[in-house]
Amino acid sequence: MRISKNGLRKLHKVLITLVIAVGISILILPFLWMISTSFKAADEIFKTTPKWLPRQFSFKNYIDVWNRQYFSRYLFNSVITSFVTMGVSLVIASLCGYSISRFKFKGKTFFSCLLIIVQMFPSMLLLIPMYLIMHRFGLINTYVSMIIAYTTFAMPFCTWMAKGYFDTIPIAMEEAARIEGCNYFGVLTLIIIPLSAPGIVTIALFAFILSWQQYLYALTFARTDPMRTITVGIALMQGQHGSVNWGEIMAGAIIACLPGLAFFTYLERYLVHGFTMGAIKE
Question: Which residues contact 190 (CB under 8 A, 6 or more apart)?
């Protein structure tokens, strides 16, 4: 029995859709289980036969975890370090990316390759040297130490993303702006960055997520409870008081996901707008 070309195309689409659906299900099931567990009572979580939906939805885990000492402070610390890291990374990556994209200077190729090479090394290798440097300058247990560390890891990739988007903008537009009297900074802020909206939003999201989920450096540099971030705070909830309250841990994890989700939702419209700019001619 032969199948027509049209039938093969439809079968191909069905198979692709099926593979994508299975992949999405595998990725999303742990998050759905986390949400379900956060609304369950302790006795229901440890049942021999677990169920997806709780017998009775309860916000007790959310109330208890929010009332924990320093939990709101952990969240505040993560927001401060993540947003400052994002802002610093945006400024430096935009300037570096523009320089690599538009200017010719000695060592440009070496510097560009170096940005890629440093991404190959695991961040753990820098932990002890960075700790010694931060300790020497008295920056341990401060926001500054975490922001410097996070920016260091975000910068190489952010710079390459910025450079890639700047390369797509015709130089003729910059030359026209300079004829009108714009300097390099004016060209960058008034023309290059607005036209690179998708890239700028992507850089912002990457820097934010990288710093928000950071654990190792946050644990090392923040030595007291009032300075710890949300990832460290949730990790320290395990094993306290001789037991693990999975309901509270899942509730805390859900709360920790909300700022990033809200930030992504807010920036999504700018990302879509940037992608569709110039798609319609008036």
Answer: 177, 182
What residues contact residue 204 under an 8 Å CB cut-off, 6+ apart? Answer: 86, 90, 267
pTM for the model:
0.82
Handedness of CA 24, 27, 33, 36 (dihedral sign): negative
Tell me the HSE value of 106 on the side-chain side, using a 13 A CA sphere: 0
Q: Which two tokens stand for residue 194?
A: 């607005």
DSSP 189: I
Listed in sequence order, the DSSP H helices in 39-142 are 42-45, 60-66, 71-102, 108-117, 127-136
| 3 state DSSP class of 6 | helix
Q: What contacts 24+ positions apart, CB below 8 Å, involve 276-282?
A: 277/195, 277/197
Q: Which two tokens stand for residue 155?
A: 């910068």
Instruction: Report CA torsion sign: 227, 233, 235, 239.
Output: positive
pLDDT in tens, 157-181: 888 888 888 888 888 888 888 887 8
267: exposed, middle or buried (Cβ count in 10 Å: 0-12, 13-18, 19+): middle
Residue 121 DSSP one-character state: S
Nearest-CA neighbor of 214 among 138, 129, 126? Answer: 126
pLDDT tens digit string along 41-57? 888 887 777 788 888 88
Measured distance CA(275)–CA(28) in Å, rounded: 27
The rounded Cα 260 to chain-centroid distance in angstroms is 8
* Separate counts of helices (H) and strands (E) for the chain: 14, 0
